[in-house]
Design goal:
The chain is an alpha+beta fold. The protein has helices at residues 2-22, 24-31, 71-90, and strands at 39-43, 46-51, 97-102, 105-110, 114-118, 128-131, 134-138, 143-145, 155-166, 170-176, 181-187, 190-201. The chain is flat and about 100 Å long.
Amino acid sequence: MATLTGFARLFNFATSTCIRRISPATVCKQYYPALKSWNIGAVAGYRTTYKLPWFREPPSCEEVVPPEYDKEKEKEASDVINEINRQVATGSTGRLFAVVYLCGTQFKVTESDVIIVSGHWPPQTGDKLKLEKVLLVGGTDFTLIGRPILNRELVSIDATVIQKTLSHTITRFRMRKRKQFRRLNFYRIQRTMLRINSITVNGDIDKKKEVEGLDRIY
């Protein structure tokens, strides 16, 4: 009797497995009514992934969403741009400030500021540089924000290397308790002092500058 019961169970298992392989969607929907809400698509006779009916179709790569035109916002933006251009042309922007990216660090600078760059840096004393990675420039009434950096032809920041020196002596002490381990080290870091000579906005901000060839990729 036990042998017949075991054979019956084995036969039922094999039969159900074969049926599920032949028509898995029908069997699953029969035993699990919740799956009836799923849509099953077939491509070239093969079963694809399940998709719920309330899921939206992914947008096509060629689909272009036109921006919503707002006349009031366009007029307001035009007025702001014209005001900034007027201030730049008349020199009434006030004292400009900028945020520059230099040697892995961001510095907020204004004219005649002195910044210190830590670590080894090739420029020597007396070299004149133009800082091109400008993240932000602002005045009294406006701020220009780059995405991520501003056009190198729009903003000019000139600087001069005034000194290359070493930092103060830094002490490094290490100790491990109950291990008779003590180490005392002294070291100094190379530093380069840079003076900001001028920060200038060149021309109108809404006009694309003419640049020969391709623009630099940072």
